[in-house]
Amino acid sequence: GGDHSITYPILQAVAEKHGPLGLLHVDAHADTAERALGERIFHGSPVRRSVQDGLLARGKVVQIGLRGSAYDPQPYKYGQEQGFRVVPAEQCWGKSLVPLLREVRAQMGDQPLYISFDIDGLDPAYAPGTGTLEIAGLTPAQALEIIRGCKGLNIVGCDLVEVAPMYDVSGNTALLGANLLFEMLCVLPGVTTR
């Protein structure tokens, strides 16, 4: 997808069919800002707008990889007040995320789940081709653990956003994004892999 604002109308459509959704949100930013430059809908607000519209199921939102700059001095407070499970990047450093995903699986149960993956959730050493870089992010291996850890859940949609190939002359960000999208397709219900 494009910038993260596209997730909001997608969640509106998916929730219209499936009801309130679980959300697995991988990102450097919480995307719960109220406004920027006077606008309520922008790449830093899709999660807040989705909560306000009743699109997300209480207790079924997990945010992984959050860190860095924000529009608010307490960027995780809004989500925590809404019952989100917030996993800052520092809690992921230097370890496998397989145990975390076991907990996420138990938390989600059979809730219809949407996966929204912002490429800036990854460290810019791996994915520099994005507009809001934040150091000390996730590794590609951890990204695979997150996505593969969702296999068997009731996934009803997914996106990968904020890839800006013109900011990465190596092409690594686009390659990584394409591979993560392929991995998401492989964990959709009914998809068989060898």
UniProtKB/TrEMBL annotation:
One of its GO terms (biological process) is putrescine biosynthetic process from arginine, via agmatine. InterPro entries: Ureohydrolase, Ureohydrolase_dom_sf, Ureohydrolase_Mn_BS. Pfam families: Arginase (PF00491). GO terms for molecular function: agmatinase activity; metal ion binding. It comes from the Eukaryota. Keywords: Hydrolase, Metal-binding. Belongs to the arginase family. Agmatinase subfamily. This is SPEB protein.
